[in-house]
Amino acid sequence: MKTIRLPFSAGIIPALLLLGLAVGGWLIALEWERSSGMFPRFLGVIFIGLAALELGIHVFKSVFGKAETVVDLEELRKQLWGFGWLSLLLLMIYLLGFMVTVVLYVFLFLRFHGRFSYLLSTAIAVGSVAFVYLIFRRLLEYSLFPGILW
Predict the structure, then answer these.
(1) pLDDT, tens digit, for every residue of 106-139?
(2) pTM for this entry
(3) N or C: which end of the chain has fewer CB within 10 A?
């Protein structure tokens, strides 16, 4: 097990990344029209608050000397990989829109992270986008963000 020692709490790095992602997602949601942006803005505020709280806890631990300063590099790699998947999701929603992102992201995540077969990944992705379409577009008549590229 490879580790490194940091001069501050090891949790500060992922907390900062999550806070940046939360603020970025919230700022993107501010551009959406009222009906499709209300829920993402609400979740963004909660996400920002929780990420700021997490960062505050780790800063407090660093200042008062009760911080875990040894980082397992494999654990850090896993956290950064998860952050990357979340970042990809938000970037895809912003660029491609919600409906296109659902099918692509579900397929990519299941195929490359979950190691599902192409057939099963495709079936679940198509089922997911059909579910989102039926529930949000047809039943609720909810306007989903179309993306900036369309």
Answers:
(1) 999 999 999 999 999 999 999 999 999 999 899 9
(2) 0.79
(3) N
Query: 40 CB contacts (<8 Å, ≥6 apart)?
Result: 25, 26, 29, 32
Rounded distance between C-alpha atoms, residue 27 and residue 29, angstroms: 5
Structure tokens that stand for 62 in this block? 């660093």
Convert the pLDDT of each residue in 18-34 to its tens digit.
999 999 989 988 888 77
Task: Assign 3-class secondary structure to the chain.
Answer: CCEEECCCCCCHHHHHHHHHHHHHHHHHHHCCCHHHHHHHHHHHHHHHHHHHHHHHHHHHHHHCCCCCCEEEHHHHHHHHHHHHHHHHHHHHHHHHCHHHHHHHHHHHHHHHHCCCCHHHHHHHHHHHHHHHHHHHHHHCCCCCCCCCCC
Joined tokens for residue 145: 């963000």
Q: Which two tokens stand for residue 23?
A: 């603020």
